[in-house]
Amino acid sequence: MRYKSTRNSELRQQASEVIVKGISEEGGLFLPESIPDISNTLDALAKLDYLSLAKRILSLYLSDFTEEEISHCVNAAYSGGKFEGDQPVTLKETGSSGAYMLELWHGPTCAFKDMALQLLPHLLTTALKKQNKAQKALILVATSGDTGKAALEGFKDVKDTEVIVFYPEDGVSPTQKLQMNTQEGNNVCVCAVKGNFDDTQTGIKTIFTDMEIKKLLDENGYFFSSANSINWGRLLPQIVYYIYSYLELYRTGKVKSFTDPVNFVVPTGNFGNILAAFFAKKMGLPVHKLICASNANNVLTDFISTGVYDKRREFYATASPSMDILISSNLERLIYMLSGEDSAVLSAWMNKLAEEGWYEVDGETMVRIKELFFGDFCSDEETTRVIQKTYHNYEYLPDTHTAVAIGVYDKYLEKTDDQIPTVIASTASPYKFARHVLGALTDDLPQDEFEIISRLEELTHEQPQKQIAALKGKKEHFDMVIEREEMPAFVKKQLAGMKGKA
Length: 502
Ligand SMILES: *Cc1c(COP(=O)(O)O)cnc(C)c1O
Description:
By secondary structure, the protein is of the alpha/beta class. 46% of the residues lie in helices and 16% in strands. It contains 22 helices and 16 strands. Helix 7 links the parallel strand 6 and strand 7. The two termini are 35 Å apart. The mean pLDDT is 94. The chain binds pyridoxal-5'-phosphate (PLP).
């Protein structure tokens, strides 16, 4: 299995090259040249536990990795108590008709990003070894909160890597900020940037193309890599849990035969997590609809209904900050795959988006999108009501992002009356967004973040994860706040510091 680029269909690269590079030289995103079919093997896959399933699925895509290498990576990522519970993910019936919560947040940072970012560092270091690269990876991360912490935790003290995380100063929750600023490790660095997530992401793109920084990197024996969800090594691990959830429904008799379909509902920002669900469907998993849930930054909802992607709109800082995104990078992969895999056509749309802020796909592509997807959104008021309702009716406490997904599923049911089993991606622990979650249940909101966490515990009798409780009193190592324009200078300064470490 080799990989091509969305902006160069002729290109062929090995999996290890694709993971090391993150993004293709001409600016495109990597995609496998073909998609393996698992529809005839579901019976055998249903006998596997999560780790064995992950190894099996990864091996279909990582052809230049040996079985031992894949096995080592998967074990290092998911075993040894890093994830709470018997398996790394948990599927829970919520009591509402045929809806199942796929909890993806039992890892070290309490958000679904751990599922990929616990694995990526091992895939990356294995890939580096394969390529006999003597260079070290400098990983730059732009985060709306959860990716940053998950990347820090995944890469901390990993040999031959350095991580710099930039987050929008006012675009993350207090707990997310504390999680990042208290990060320990010898190869990590965190910095706040004035502006929103898209500003931070744009700042990183500028650094990637800065010739002076490139030269500095070379001189110091580093190269840039990305831990953002444009890296194929982030998407691939996410395909596994959609397949797992289907097999779990089969094992518990909720799905009777391997032709019975399910729906997936995914709270979406960068279009990474839902793209993984799309891949699971393309691999032959029986999936009816992919339900794309957005918050007030509903650029994807509009796109799915009109075929026009238009980011020229007001940006809202919402209660679900990890979805406060107007440029959903991974949509590029979907559009490429659904519009005939023509890199010239795709490049023209992406250039138009970069230059004019919008593009419109053709009618045929639109027909395919509508067949596959349903899109809708929830405002913050609706999200708050969903948290109340879900807790009171089903004793299930969703975080704000998961609540957006539940709210959009309700809208889907109203419009379609679809009865088939539906898996809702539960993407973060409610304690990560405790202020908003408690605020939905009571008017009496304490000032102090830890007071809020204990109040939530008293009220719900649900324990906060020990990593979140342990943040109290932890030393903050980072407090820098810079302008977006200062990001390149910041990286240069960090590079100067790394030189001495070698
Ligand atoms: C990142 C994130 C999302 C959005 O996922 P994408 O892959 O960017 O679409 C949703 N919920 C939470 C909690 C997240 O951290």
